């Protein structure tokens, strides 16, 4: 059963298919999470054992064919589950929503 | 030609704001996008919701000639904010005269070329995807879910997909003189998103294929229109449309962008610290009054949060 939605802050919330992304969650008590999952297919989360008080570090491996778009992160605290909605985005290789090459299109003209 | 922008505040507030380096960068991009475009297009219009109008017009003082808050209907109807493209599509569908729609991260340093302003339909550039790599345009998975779950798509989509077309159109800018076509396309795209038969498909797919519905479907509609008109862009590989750039590769070429006088802070460019700094300096220099409004609003927001 998923508990109430819970606003946690994130240090990094985007990553591309085929990438390994380091992600930190910051929220009171987050380090006590026993399990962390992400909605949707194509993502593996490994918890970093060095989590500190109010901080949980994760290593996120994204499959190259993982569907793009925003994902929820769900954390278990015993029987309770909490969700951070729309917390992480998987980007496409090149798109209006995902390309990051400097300087964008004509960014050097600013 | 009317220059229009759209801003559906709900998706922005929920998650789209994370694309930006900061709220301040977002505001400054709006200021520069409008400030530069209005040098070329005096008739400017914002299509937004109530909260969007409060932010952009009341707080930031962006001097749009017209402000339309019809996107408030999306909030009243409980439209799914993960379909952020509904704001853009609704703006296209509301137009009654030739227009160019600009994303808020698009800067027109020059007016559009005459060939675009005279075109029935234009966009930023053609994009082609490989069927072996559908990480962006998830065409096959989309069709599979539609077929398995009894979803609804218009004939234009079915025909285009059956031909295995892989062309789409990047809509950093979109517009034209054939307003009837643009309204028809946008209305059909909205129907796809909101069709009751498709709710179960979106649940299966989980992620919302905004770019598929906006950009791939635009190409499908153009090809269908070309088939019906027999002579208006009949090449199936380049449906009847003018583009500012020949391709994505041309768009990302700094020399091409400079020739076109065009900036689009596509994707992660909005989060880039160096670009954020350049935006800060440029708006302060060339649009000082707008800069002061943005800076004051940001200062008030910080004070209010403390």
Main beta-sheet strand count, sense and barrel state of chain A: 5 strands, mixed
- Kindly, what is the distance between the CA atoms of the first and last residues of chain B, rounded to a whole number of angstroms? 45 Å
Q: Kindly name the structural category of chain B.
A: alpha/beta
In percent terms, what proportion of residues of chain A is strand?
A: over 45%
Shape of chain A: globular
- Helix and strand sequence of chain B: EHHEHEHHEEHEHHEHHHEHHEHH
CATH class descriptor name of chain A: Mainly Beta
CATH architecture of chain A: Sandwich
Mean of all residue-level pLDDT scores of chain A? 77
How many strands in all of chain A?
9
Shape descriptor of chain B reads globular
Q: How is the secondary structure organized here?
A:
The complex is a heterodimer of chains A (110) and B (306).
Chain A (H helix, E strand, L loop, with lengths): L1 E4 L3 E2 L3 E3 L3 E7 L8 E4 L4 E5 L7 E8 L6 E9 L2 E12 L19
Parallel strand pairs in A: 1-9, 3-9
Antiparallel strand pairs in A: 2-4, 4-7, 5-8, 6-7, 8-9
Chain B lengths: L1 E6 L1 H6 L8 H15 L6 E5 L1 H10 L6 E3 L3 H5 L8 H9 L5 E4 L3 E3 L5 H4 L4 E7 L10 H11 L5 H8 L4 E10 L2 H16 L4 H7 L4 H20 L12 E4 L2 H5 L1 H7 L1 E3 L8 H14 L1 H18 L1
Parallel strand pairs in B: 1-2, 1-4, 2-3, 6-8
Antiparallel strand pairs in B: 4-7, 5-9, 6-7
Helix pairs in contact in B: 2-14, 2-15, 5-9, 7-10, 8-11, 9-11, 14-15
Describe the structure in your own words.
The complex is a heterodimer of chains A (110) and B (306). Chain A has 110 residues and is mainly beta. Chain A has no helices and nine strands. In chain A, the strands form two sheets. In chain A, strands 1, 3, 5, 8 and 9 form a five-stranded mixed β-sheet that branches. Chain A is globular. Chain B has helices at residues 9-14, 23-37, 50-59, 72-76, 85-93, 114-117, 139-149, 155-162, 179-194, 199-205, 210-229, 248-252, 254-260, 273-286, 288-305, and strands at 2-7, 44-48, 66-68, 99-102, 106-108, 122-128, 167-176, 242-245, 262-264. Mean pLDDT of chain B is 92; it is low at 232-238. In chain B, helix 2 (23-37) packs antiparallel against helix 15 (288-305) and helix 9 crosses helix 11 (210-229). Chain B is an alpha/beta fold. In chain B, helix 3 links the parallel strand 2 and strand 3 (66-68). A seven-stranded mixed β-sheet of chain B has the order 3-2-1-4-7-6-8, with helices on both faces. In chain B, strands 5-9 form a two-stranded antiparallel sheet. Chain B folds into two domains: 1-107 and 272-299, no CATH class; 111-260, no CATH class. The interface between A and B is large, with 36 and 51 residues.
